[in-house]
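User: Predict the structure for this protein chain, please.
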Amino acid sequence: MSSSDGLAKNSLGVFESIIMGIAGTAPAFSVAVTSAAIVASVGVLSVGSILYCGLIMFGITLAFIHLSKIQPNAGAAYAWVGHVFGPTWGFFAGWGLLIASIFFMVSATIPAASSTLLLVAPDQAENTQLISVIAVVWLTVVSLIVGRGIKHSSFMQITLTLFETIILFVLITAGIISYWSNPAHPPSFVWISPLSFSPQLFATGALTAIFFFWGWDVTMNLSEESKGGSKNSDGAAGKGAFWAVLNMMLFFVLMMVVVLMVLTDSEIAESGTNVLFAIANKLFPAPWSYLAVFCTIFSTVGTIETQILQFSRSMFAMARDGMLHPVYAKVHDEYKTPWVATFVIWFLGVVLLFSSSFMPSVKAILTSSILAIGFQICFYMSLTGFACAWHYRNKIKAGFGPAMAYVIWPSFSGAFMVFVAIYSIPTFDAFTIMMGVGGLLLGFLPLAFSRKRALKTAH
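Assistant: Here is the predicted structure, written as structure tokens:
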């Protein structure tokens, strides 16, 4: 059943990689789950926070693309940071992603479950115990699909993402046309003016906005399974990441403008994780408005899938290199998937979902997990930005274009993420600090075990 052979090579082309990157950022899910949180934090400056965060994230995208030219690797950030800064830093870059992915199993499956209840039992949409049970069902179904192979995963993503894109395009178009003359929040240059932000306000908005964009880097974790990847070439994975992030920058800014134009502050706050449904309710009569709920469910299922892919490929690569136990490098003979690593994230997700069922509300669960994930994203992506700038430091003499793309933009993006992470820690409650910072520090244990195993093998 198992082997330690490689993954399925040359399975994904550029189009499939773009779809994976878009699905990883989960447009409908991100807007539905995060809009209320970011508007509560920075109000109409949400648009500017998302725009500037997108520009910062694009610098990190360039870092991933350029580092992939070293060698396509399922470990992505783990492998390339380790190549540039050494195995310890590489391990913690990978560990940051693993921990963020585990927490994401809660923050992603819970909206899928609450949207499901909104369709079949609206009066139970805030029942945390029932939501946790349905979330486990969704997690199990998606894990089984991912375990069946990358082609199954890719086909599912294309289907879900195309349906999601059509509905979101309709919502954006209808929202702008219907509320252009009488918006709940009149559009203004103030929304995106840098002068509108204080450092604290910018950091607060950025930490939540980063969550919008996270997930596109799954394309880079699939670089070993993508076409055209080779040394000194970014291949399908790099092109997929590039176009996915550009598309998401445009989409998220437009969607946040529509959210503010259509909904009042109180409506946004009351909508919780169902912002898209609240917009659809004001634009279309039932039952057409419920298409927005399906859209959120499909987007959420899609991003759960990409996150399981990202976790399992990173864990596989770390185990293959001896940084984690070798059992996690086991690949299914027929499906060519790291099935042990896939099982691990399913199991840990179930444990966390069971634990979260004892929290007082869905909102409390999501707020803590989103902030903790944002902190961990800042950690591993900043390391990747710095690794790119250092590895290609000689490009600084090659002219403005190469210097900007290889050194200046990635290093600035990395520094910005460090600033956001440090600035935000004092605003965390104890539970969020335990999840965000404590989750990273926990990595010293498996690192110590891997070194012990290496010493035993050497002797």
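The domain at 2-458 is CATH 1.20.1740.10 (Amino acid/polyamine transporter I).
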